[in-house]
Specification:
Order of helices and strands: EEEEEEEEEEEE
Distance between the termini: 30 Å
Structural class: mainly beta
Strand order of the largest sheet: 4-6-11-8-9
Radius of gyration: 19 Å
Helix content: under 10%
Length: 208
């Protein structure tokens, strides 16, 4: 059984896998194996991301933590998504004391229609979804306006580590995009580190 939209699977109603499937856009593939008279398998989950357009210029306007600098700004658009179980693999930019502030400049002939930010959710290691994400855009640096503010759903219990993403579609052409993502200021009361600051780990920002 499979789903491509993040829907939870069951052994009766979910779509049966019968032939190869084509993935044309970002997708979260879930799979479940069943057999009559047997217990169902665990659900396996895979994220697929369509390779995006490259900015002319990628800037990191706030410093990452000294232990999680990856390759600097270039890590955000190098088409390399980090290993969720190894956030020291050189593909994750880590932020705890600072917000992540990044800016991207595009060719006027190839402006993005949308953006996806990929982050690591590893609750036991204090890696949480961002508390808030602001996306700014405009024709140039001097006329940027706030396009949206996103508050991702925060976990209510421990779960296995995985990469997750936040996406936004632009309603009008933008030559410059600024993204400000703020780490969670206090871990929730049910967490072993309650009250401490959370980490934000970002591996990739994809424009399409």
């Amino acid at each position: 059984r499979i789903s491509l939209d993040g829907t939870e699977l069951d052994s009766v109603n979910s779509t049966m896998y019968r032939a190869p499937i084509e993935i044309q856009d970002h997708a979260r593939l879930k799979t479940l194996a069943t057999k009559e008279g047997w217990l169902k398998s665990n659900t396996l989950e895979y994220n697929f991301y369509l390779q995006g357009i490259q900015p002319l210029k990628t800037e990191l306007l706030s410093p990452a933590n000294k232990d999680y600098k990856a390759k600097g700004a270039t890590s955000l658009t190098d088409n390399q998504i980090g290993d969720v179980d190894n956030f020291r693999d050189g593909n994750w930019l880590g932020f705890r004391e600072n917000k992540m502030i990044s800016q991207f400049t595009f060719n006027e002939k190839e402006t993005p229609k949308g953006v996806t930010l990929i982050y690591n959710k590893n609750i036991g290691s204090y890696l949480m979804p961002p508390g808030i994400v602001e996306i700014w855009g405009g024709e140039n640096n001097s006329v940027l306006k706030l396009l949206t503010t996103i508050k991702p759903e925060q976990p209510s219990k421990y779960s296995s580590a995985k990469s997750e993403s936040i996406s936004f579609q632009f309603e009008e052409p933008v030559n410059v995009v600024k993204i400000i993502a703020t780490p969670v200021s206090k871990l929730p009361t049910w967490h072993s580190g309650k009250g401490e600051k959370g980490w934000l780990m970002v591996s990739e920002i994809i424009f399409r």
